[in-house]
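Build the 3D complex.
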Amino acid sequence: MSKYVVSCSPHLRDNVSTRSIMQDVCIAMLPACIAGVLFFGYRAAIILVLSVAAAVLSEKFYCKAAHIKDTTGDFSAVVTGMLLAMNLSSTVPYWMPVVGSIIAILLVKMIFGGIGQNFMNPALAARAILALSWATAMNTFATPAFGNLAGVDTIASATPIAGGSYTMTQLLLGNIPGTIGETCKIALLAGAAYLLYRQVISWHIPVAFIASFAVCCLIWSGFDMNVVLTQLLSGGLILGAFFMATDYSTSPATTKGKIIFGLGCGLLLFVFRCCKKTPAEWCSFAILLMNVVSPLIERVTGNKSFGEVKK
Amino acid sequence: MATTQTFGGGVHPHEIGNGKNATNSQPIVNAAAPARVTIAMSQHLGAPAACCVKVGDVVNMGQVIGEAQGAISAPVHASVSGKVVAVSTCVLASGKSVPAVVIDNDYEDRWDESVKACENVDALSAQDIVDIARSCGVVGLGGATFPTAVKLNTASLDPKPDTLVINGSECEPYLTSDHRLMVECAEQIIDGIRFAMKATGVSCAKVGIENNKPDAIEAMKAAATDGIEIVALPAKYPQGYEKMLIYALTGRRVPNGKLPSAVQCIVMNVATCASLSDAVRKGQPVIDRIVTVAGRVANPCNLRVRIGVPLLDVIDQVGGMTDGVRKLICGGPMMGKTMSTLNTPITKNFSAFLPLGEESVSAEESACIRCGRCMRACPMGLMPAKMDALVRHGDYAGAIALGALNCMECGSCTYSCPAKRELLQAIKVAKCIGGNIKA
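Done.
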């Protein structure tokens, strides 16, 4: 036997790994999480920790029970846990992030085959199940108080979606009622810029998503820029467009497919938000619905090969 | 510098390996004459040559020892003068076992009488140049080793080619043999290009060189004559693949399943042009080539090595291998083949010898995360991860339907995969099995 390895080329590999990609996503979400803790106090921090811990432990448990290799080292469970917590209000009971993470990892991700195989975004699907099961808890939000870590006023207050009125600065900075990770748009945009810079995500889905939604709003509002900007900076749109709609497993991999997917998300969100006057946020449902048609979109938008020419 | 279009996709492995720096500023070194050479009868694309010497024969340098068989083939010449000690087989880098002639060197370097300089090169007709290329065993030295005479013989082509595309891009990491050749022998390359232009009746030649070789671009520009354009290309792998190069230099896309002649182009490597010049002017057949020896060796360099020298001798010339060698690679790290033994002889396609360490052994693969990096990297616009999934389910025909046969095996997909999956290997399996199913 020769001591030399014989294998198929190539013999060099890029440094990027699944783990490094997922770690980049975590880094990108960190500013928004920190902002959430600063605005909504210690409860937000506890929810984040519980959610991440439950997600990682559920995956560890599943791998052990199913006798497969422990996959928690790839950090994807951490991403799911963080995303779920970012989609929860800081006032939810502490068991809720735990239940949500278990649903996300076991029911939505692992039983379909784990990373890359799930057909819905795990964190979003879990959020949807929680929202449908415990609607009141999921739609009660605290009034933010910057730096008041000891705890904030838990009196239910109206989110911008539910008719609350806030200034543009408030919407951008995030001292408005909402879920832990969705309110601080500046932190979210900084994280999004990092993901784009690191080439973890491409611009196609977020831009198509936000642009189609903005155009619909513009027409619907009779070309009132103020309404459009308020809509863009309200609710979970920015979080959803950059961090959830771009999930690899549940969005098309083709460039054309990405644009169609983004357009679909934007249109659905517009229909849900503007034509249906409910106080709840529908961004996650718009993305989930598009998740389901993503394989179809990918199928009809197959790549054109380099040498495919007109006869 | 002229700006050119470039293909979509591609990767930047130079940034990882950056192995070119070890050798790109050192002059080419002539390797010491070998004691014994093992010359393979199949060093080209097409039918193997038939051995025409027997044990005990005394042969001269440049003498034909293997005769070309059929239209697509090339003769093989003795790279030393000496005595034939065996007619046996040898194992090539590809793993194939082929007939070979073993010659003991008498160190006299006695040229064969058939090797003589051409007295009046201007009087040569196009057909004369094609004939010389054939008799001198000139083949594509970029790696594919397609017989050059077949390429230059354009009489039967319709439409007639109008552009000669010369590959000086050398996009593989570590490799600098073409780079050094362009710096040191620019005139010889240009001379060869002019013979190729004459043979093919083409009036326009474009030489593509990646912009990470400014000294080579400068030297080639200084040597270039009328009708020969030197074009700087973005440094991106696989810029040197013929379809990508044609697109960059002419804007034409070679249709799937077609050859460059379909878009009126002929593609030749710079090293091939240099050997064509030697063949036409001096009558010299291909008996040596420049090999980049880099990676885990004591003194990385570019060696001019005789055809048939075993790797063990090559390693001695560069001060031996350093510790931790895990793979022996023939060619570049992106497309090169791995060898299990150092007995492999140098052949005409041996552009580099790279002993690489642990970094060349792939990490354990994990599940596909559908990130789409392989698709974005694929210069041919294919979907490697999808084909990989189909192949793993045994659906080879499905992979073929997705265009697996258009894959040129550049390895950009595997290189870029964050889950470290062997995507190219799966596609190769599909091409091999699925291609047969269809046929």
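Residues 255 and 262 of chain B are 8 Å apart (CA to CA).
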